[in-house]
Here is the input.
Amino acid sequence: MKRKVKRMLAMFLTFIMVFSMATVYVSAAEEGTGKSTEAAGKPELSKKTADSVTLKTKEGYVYGIQENGSTWKWAEDKQYDKTAKTVSFTGLKAETEYVFAQKTKDAETVQDADQLKVKTEAAAIQAETPKQEEVKNETPKVEETPKTDDTDKNAETNKPQDDSLNTEIQKPEGTDQTNTGVEGNKVNVPDGTEKPDETQKPDDTNKPDGSGDVNPPTDMGNTLDETPAIDNNTAVNPPSDSLDPPKTDGDKKEEPKGDTSKSHQQQNNALVNKDNEIHNSTNTNTDKNTPQKADTPEKPLVEKVTDTSVVLKPGSDADKYTYSYKLALKDSKAKEVELTNDTGEFKDLKPDTDYLAYVMIKGNDKADKPYSDSDWSVAAEVHTLKAAADKPKAAPKLAEKTDTTIKLDTSTADLEYGVYLDSGDISWNSTGEFKGLTAGKEYKFVTRVKFDKDKQMESPVSDVLKVTTKKAAAAAPEAPVCIGRTENSITLRAVNGQEYAVLENGNPVKWQDSEVFSGLKPNTRYSFVTRVKYNPDEAMESKVSSSSSAKTIITFEGSSVTGIEVNGVYDKNAVVNIAANGNGMDNQKPESQDTRWVPESWKWGASAKGTWKKSPYTAKLTLNKAGKMELQVVFQLEEYTEKGWTDMAVEKKTITVPFSVKEQYTITASAGSNGKISPSGSVKVMEGNDATFTITPNKGYQISQVTVDGKAVTVKNSKYTFEDVSANHKISVTFKKLTKTVPKTGDTMNMAGYLMLAVLSAGAVFAVVVSAKRKKMNRR
Here is the structure.
């Protein structure tokens, strides 16, 4: 029986030991895994692309990406950038959502709160390279140079007025075509079609050896293929004694290489003199009644020339004879039609072309001494002007203007600019600037292409630009006058039609219509000017007035009321000493200021105005009425003048101090022996306030009873509070000895207890086993 009992005791002790050890193991396991259950937080994204995601890293954490929706692949060391504190996951798919996580290094699991979903960017779309067009291996066609009439490398291209004149163009050097060949190559082309170019053989007379077997070169004029339609003009054949006879080789050598027109005139003069000699000798042998040939007149004078017309007049004796005139192209080798008339006016000519003009005296058989037609005079050279340039496409543009000057835009080249005068004439210049104009007057401006009046027709004028000069600047008004000022503003006297500005460094900063300047600094002097308002597009800037100055007042900040607190609470019938101080009061003679604030009056509640005791400004308030009150202190602004400090009546400031006056009640607190109450005795409590009393028993005692105004009350945590006191009260407390030991609560078996129990159990089992072995040995 005893053996069974011992066995059962041993089994029981073994069970206790095993249970204790298991409890210790479970407690240790739970304590060791505490950190792993804490959430690490979502990882923070640094950047992402179409094939990569970069996360920001934190010390002590590892980062991974979820694979196949369940397993985690944690980043290797090479994926971490310790300098940038980032980890990168590459080789991802574009526009695909991935799940990333962070955890502490010893954590075994990943919670949902540690995961971050990131969708990669879309893949960049590569633009297709446009296909280049096939390049054909064809030789590009060279554009043919358009043919022009009367082309000269050193002169402008002459545009014919009509198709009555053929143009001859010099053939390039190296051709062997003679002048005869040139004439033979002329082809008559019907009107309205382009005539083929005619080429002249190059000049061979200027060779160093003087050789050449063709006529010396002359300025090839335009030949007339048909008679132009000119009123009162008759076409005649060239005279038999041609003015341009064939020249021999000897003539070529003697002819100067310079102006060929001079040699041509010399030949004409020689031929005319020779003809006159023959004529005179013939006349001496004729009958005296036969009319004599009139003397050959001087060459005609050019009265007027344009691009398409020439007006001739006799060189002398204009009123003595009747004349006939002839005009031919200069140095034309082709058969030409000469123009003749009795007026001397030739029209429909070619611009920029050389002509030869002649005059002769027409015969008169009714004169006292009848005479027949004279010979043609020596030729006078006439060159028609170039045609006028085209009309400018637009009217001139205004660049800038004042009351006496207007300047036009001169960005377009080769133009000149004109202004219409009162007479209707136009005054031209090439600068586009017109000065000395009248203020407020409208002017008309035009432009035209520049030209040489001796060589070209006047260009037509453009459309008209009308510009009115600005009005003259208005006279300067009187200086502005300050009529009011505050801490941060100054008000000037307003004048109709004027604007105002404040000066900085002697210059107006910004003009404004308002006479009020705000946003200024306190106790600072400013200077102001004014001027007459004007429209800058219509008038010159008005002249500025002389300046005047004004100073902002001293700031009210710094003024104060002491002796009573804002929102303070005071007992009824209490006496409060107050004091007031205005900003700037300590400066009796202004040095850096000319204004100050001075206390003027005070009142509180509904009471009448109080009286200050000056220097310093102090007063006593007897708070004889309960309730919410306000103390109002009024300050007056003063300025320093020649009369000393004087009031600025319009400037006043008020400081308002809210406070409360309440009734006062007494709470009498008492305690019996073996304890105390705090506070004790007569405790003053203001109306509406709370009062808390703390009860403390002596050691070995406890609160027995608490009464308030004779009634027992319940005490919580050894304290009692009177709330919103509105009357007098009494509180008393008694104490008694402790009768019971208060059991300790909250004791729990900790891991050390379990461990101790296990050790004791193990020791008991060991002792039982040892005892059993000894007894067994003893029996043996």
